[in-house]
Design goal:
Layout: H1 2-20, H2 25-34, E1 41-51, E2 56-67, E3 70-80, E4 83-92, E5 95-99, E6 107-110, H3 122-132, E7 137-139, E8 144-151, H4 154-161, E9 178-187, E10 193-204, E11 207-218, H5 230-236
Antiparallel strand pairs: 1-2, 1-11, 2-3, 3-4, 4-5, 5-6, 7-8, 8-9, 9-10, 10-11
Helix pairs in contact: 3-4
């Protein structure tokens, strides 16, 4: 009985901390880093703008997914030089259906043996936060917990470089020619990452390149079953 009471007391304590928004920085970090073990479903929007002296390329990815069982619906939109292209993808288990453009036919294929469901995954984004968290300033005021940084540290640049596929040849660029900032927002009720913004400016031989990345998560562990529409299956047959 004493053990049960102790467990109930601990559970109540965590509940009260979450409701009050008064968790310590250490408690928030511990819970955020643990959150990928709890998150199996979510919807997310990834917006990436890359601007140089010539043009701006805008990439927008909207995805709804479940990790177990494997399923997703993703819409990728690219805009550059006044041109806009959209790719639509469904995946259920190992069957993938893709439409390269609005007027293109649906094509079916089997997923490769080691093909990931979506990159960067929620787990990948949490891993980025873990890599840069020692540089971040923590704030518990407002509606979310926030971790912020403004300046430049090469370790931070490298933490974002791989998961977000930032190909700028940063190893050949001096630290003083780069600046960055990031903000992670964490839900106070469940310690899941809600939003991420990352800005990077680089001076290279061709001029300045600015990259802005915005990520928003929603519907955590609250996704209806994802199915491939019958018309898509029929067209791809």
């Amino acid at each position: 009985m004493k053990k049960i009471c102790a467990l109930l007391a601990i559970s109540l304590l965590f509940f009260l901390i979450a409701c009050s928004g008064k968790a310590s920085e250490e408690e928030v970090i511990e819970n955020v880093l643990h959150s990928p073990r709890e998150v199996n479903q979510y919807s997310a929007t990834f917006e990436i703008d890359t601007t140089d002296l010539v043009k701006t390329v805008r990439e927008n990815r909207e995805v709804i997914l479940t990790e177990d069982p494997i399923a997703k619906h993703e819409i990728l939109t690219m805009e550059a030089d006044g041109n806009k292209t959209t790719m639509n993808t469904y995946r259920v288990d190992n069957e993938i259906y893709t439409q390269e453009a609005d007027d293109s036919p649906w094509v079916k294929r089997e997923a490769a043996e080691d093909e990931s469901l979506f990159e960067p995954s929620y787990k990948d984004v949490v891993s980025v936060l873990e890599s840069v968290i020692d540089y971040a300033e923590f704030n518990s005021e407002g509606g979310t917990y926030t971790f912020r940084f403004d300046g430049f540290e090469r370790e931070i640049y490298e933490a974002f470089e791989g998961p977000f596929n930032i190909l700028l040849g940063g190893a050949d660029i001096a630290d003083e020619d780069m600046s960055l900032d990031f903000t992670f927002e964490v839900d106070k009720s469940n310690y899941y990452i809600e939003n991420l913004e990352y800005n990077l400016s680089v001076e290279n031989e061709t001029g300045q390149v600015d990259i802005n990345i915005r990520v928003a998560y929603d519907n955590m562990n609250d996704i209806d079953e994802i199915e491939v529409p019958e018309e898509v299956i029929e067209e791809a047959s």
